[in-house]
Structure to design on (315 residues):
């Protein structure tokens, strides 16, 4: 069998050498043919230079370099499209995904599992982030039909079968955590302790995380739209009843003291709710707009690919 390892890299110059050394050690012991596919996601540091050196020195190291930063989802997709292995591992370049787990992942693949997932047991993050992510997963699993598990990230092994299924999902707005779950197949979960980042900075700012979270909820189904319809219907029924009661009162008892308070509050509440759901609808239309444009998910600037498959095009 052949193993492909896909590594998205954004400003990881400080980590790449260490990462490669660690991986090499593991691969030697594994004794199976392995290719490493690094994807340079428009880094602003020396990442590309390091990758060039590495791939010139090692025939097992290939790289793809984007014309700008397209985001981790795009970088993963590119790596997966270029991968030629029978099994594919996706992992981060910052050594937060411990390479020593790779043999266990491969072992489970040999046992016949199509997705072998590595799950973090302790997040080792700030308390507030842990709380927010717990809440988020609760909400998500309630909202969408796919099952997402806290602590399960992109670190996993896919069989060729699972990978081909994943690549057949062509959407522009990719939310991998959901896609992995959506394709299904026999899955096995391995747990590991959280590790702190080796060098450099995490690229997740609060706003990036928030956007990612909203992507997750909206990219899977139209439940938010459905909920807006329910709330809208409820409010319409209530206000119709209220208007009828008012009409009845006016006709039979004459005009009351002008209800300034009720008027204003109705306008405000309705206005607020309308804005929220207008936003939800706008989000969906925006997504349709992006999908309809059918742009490529990433643009390759340069590459050094030692072994090519039919999917990866030459740029
Ligand atoms: N990454 C990427 N493009 C981006 C942001 C991140 O390819 O726009 C890569 C990054 O180089 C790393 C992985 O995705 O290999 C995870 O990023 P990071 O460590 O910042 O995320 P965290 O571990 O904090 O969730
Ligand atoms: Mg990290």
């Amino acid at each position: 069998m052949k193993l492909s390892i896909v590594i998205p890299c954004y400003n990881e110059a400080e980590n790449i050498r260490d990462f490669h050394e660690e991986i090499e050690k593991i691969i030697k012991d594994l004794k199976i043919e392995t290719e490493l596919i690094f994807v340079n996601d428009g880094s602003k540091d020396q990442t590309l230079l390091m990758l060039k050196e590495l791939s010139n020195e090692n025939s097992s190291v290939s790289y793809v370099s984007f014309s700008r930063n397209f985001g981790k989802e795009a970088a993963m997709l590119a790596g997966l499209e270029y991968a030629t292995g029978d099994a594919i591992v996706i992992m981060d370049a910052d050594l937060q995904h411990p390479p020593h787990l790779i043999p266990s992942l491969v072992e489970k693949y040999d046992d016949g599992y199509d997705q072998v997932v590595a799950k973090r047991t302790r997040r080792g993050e700030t308390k507030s982030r842990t709380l927010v992510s717990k809440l988020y997963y609760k909400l998500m699993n309630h909202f969408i039909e796919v099952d997402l598990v806290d602590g399960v990230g992109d670190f996993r092994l896919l069989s060729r079968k699972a990978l081909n299924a994943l690549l057949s999902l062509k959407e522009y707005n990719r939310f991998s955590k959901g896609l992995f779950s959506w394709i299904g197949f026999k899955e096995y979960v391995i747990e590991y302790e959280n590790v702190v980042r080796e060098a450099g900075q995490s690229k997740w700012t609060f706003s990036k995380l928030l956007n990612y979270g909203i992507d997750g909820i909206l990219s899977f189904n139209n439940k938010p739209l459905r909920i807006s319809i329910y709330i809208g219907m409820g409010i319409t029924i209530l206000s119709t009843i209220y208007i009828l009661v008012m009409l009845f009162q006016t006709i039979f008892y004459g005009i009351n003291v002008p209800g300034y308070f009720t008027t204003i509050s109705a306008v405000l509440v309705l206005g607020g709710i309308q804005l929220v759901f207008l936003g939800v609808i706008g989000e969906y239309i925006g997504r349709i707009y992006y999908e309809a444009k059918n742009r490529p998910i990433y643009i390759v600037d340069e590459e050094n690919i030692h072994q090519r498959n039919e999917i990866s095009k030459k740029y």
Q: What stands out?
A: The chain has ten helices and eight strands. The chain has two domains: 2-204+300-314, 223-293. The longest strand covers residues 2-9. Residues 8-10, 12, 41, 69, 71-72, 75, 92-94, 96, 202-204 surround uridine-5'-diphosphate (ligand 1) (CB under 6 Å).
